[in-house]
Each structure stands twice: as C-alpha cells, then as structure tokens.
Design goal:
Low-confidence stretches: none
Oligomer: single chain
Strand order of the largest sheet: 1-3-2
Helix content: 55-70%
Structural class: mainly alpha
Mean pLDDT: 91
Order of helices and strands: HHEHHEEHHH
Strand content: 5-15%
Largest sheet: 3 strands, antiparallel
Number of strands: 3
Number of helices: 7
Distance between the termini: 51 Å
Radius of gyration: 19 Å
C-alpha cells in the first residue's frame, strides 16, 4: 500500500509539526467518536467513566480536574450520563452544594467495553508502527504536552 501524501497548506509551513498534531488529533478523535457512538456514548464521557471506574464517588470538581475539561462540558456530560442510567449525582454529606458522582451497575458494566474500545483504537493507531516507534511516540507526545502546559502556566503567572 503506497504511503498517503499529506498536503500541508502553505500558511501552516511555519509549523509543520503543529499541523501534523492537529491532523492526528482530528483523525483520532473522529475515529474514537464513531466507536463511542456504537456504545451510546459521546466523546469525553468515556474519560469520566474511566475516572469513576478507578475511584467511584468523586465530586464534580474532582472529575473536572482529572479530565481537564471545562465545567459546562462536564456538567452536560454528567447530566446525559445520569439520564442514560450510567451514574447518579447526590449532594455530599459535608456540604449539600457539592455533588458527588457514583456509578450505577450499568455504569460499572462499561469497564470492559471501554477497555476494548481503547485496545482497538490503540491497535488501529499503531498498526504501522514498531513497538519501539509506539513507545517513542508516547514519550514524545507527553513531552510536547508538558511543554505546552508549562508554557500555559508560565503565561498565566506573568499576567
């Protein structure tokens, strides 16, 4: 199979790596979204479920922090997930204004389907890479993430 050709717009020529990251993220997210639709989930809901599967009974604030999404996105996702019977939200005993999120049996049953989805997505994503290339990619991706996040922190401190 011939290697696909990638056409980078001339204005993106100053940032070919950034444009490649954008294209990768878009393709990966679209494929993941299609897989999630088959499970009746919306993108991002699996991240919330994974956090709750690791530690049930988190507050909405804790979930916000762990997934790195904005308040309105998490709140909307949790509402949809509650409507779907995956979780319940209850006021905390220590502060009735704080909402604690608990998985239902249906939500806990999502562990294996979500794990299977991530395995399949990983296999698709890495099928043309050696194990060493895949490991290098993960290290590089996290190095880029850390560089971007440390820049955001530094910019926020200087304002």
């Amino acid at each position: 199979m011939p290697a696909p050709t990638h056409r980078t717009p001339s204005t993106a020529g100053e940032g070919p790596m950034s444009y490649a990251i954008f294209q990768l993220a878009r393709a990966h997210r679209a494929h993941a979204a299609a897989m999630l639709r088959e499970m009746d989930l919306h993108p991002g809901q699996e991240l919330l479920l994974m956090q709750l599967l690791d530690r049930d009974g988190q507050t909405q604030s804790e979930l916000l922090e762990s997934v790195g999404l904005d308040h309105s996105t998490v709140s909307k996702s949790l509402r949809r997930m509650q409507d779907a019977g995956l979780l319940v939200r209850e006021p905390a005993e220590h502060d009735r204004r704080v909402m604690v999120v608990h998985l239902t049996d249906k939500g806990r049953a999502m562990r294996e389907p979500i794990a299977a989805m991530w395995r399949a997505l990983e296999e698709i994503s890495a099928r043309d890479l050696s194990a060493q290339q895949a490991e290098s990619f993960v290290r590089i991706a996290y190095a880029i993430t850390d560089a971007i996040n440390s820049r955001d922190v530094a910019a926020g401190e200087s304002e």
